[in-house]
Design goal:
3 helices, elongated, about 100 residues, mainly alpha, Methane Monooxygenase Hydroxylase, Chain G, domain 1
Length: about 100
């Protein structure tokens, strides 16, 4: 088994990925910004902000989350998918197609 992946019993998946520090830091920073945007939305609602202002902020948070997903997906294709295909695990293409369908809803 490749060192990057290990099997575990998590019901969400059967694999894990060891990310390099740069990738992990970038993804965590993106999530922390999104978390801040969501907290801002909560604060705006608590302070009875004007609806269009809340909607604008919600749109920014949605866009940031979509950007996070695009970066994560690109990293996944470059590493996990590529390595699996090279190793002959063609079922990874089906998994990728399922992920893309979910993301495109």
């Amino acid at each position: 088994m490749d060192n990057k992946f290990e099997t575990h019993t998590d019901p969400c998946s059967c694999r894990k990925k060891t990310r390099d520090e740069t990738e992990r830091r970038d993804l965590m920073n993106r999530l922390k910004r999104i978390e801040g945007q969501v907290r801002g939305l909560q604060r705006m609602l608590e302070e009875d902000a004007y609806c269009p202002d809340i909607l604008t902020q919600a749109s920014a948070a949605t866009s940031a989350l979509n950007s996070f997903c695009r970066v994560l997906l690109a990293n996944h294709i470059r590493t996990c998918v590529s390595e699996d295909i090279k190793a002959g695990r063609e079922e990874t293409v089906d998994e990728l197609m399922d992920i893309l369908q979910k993301l495109m809803k």
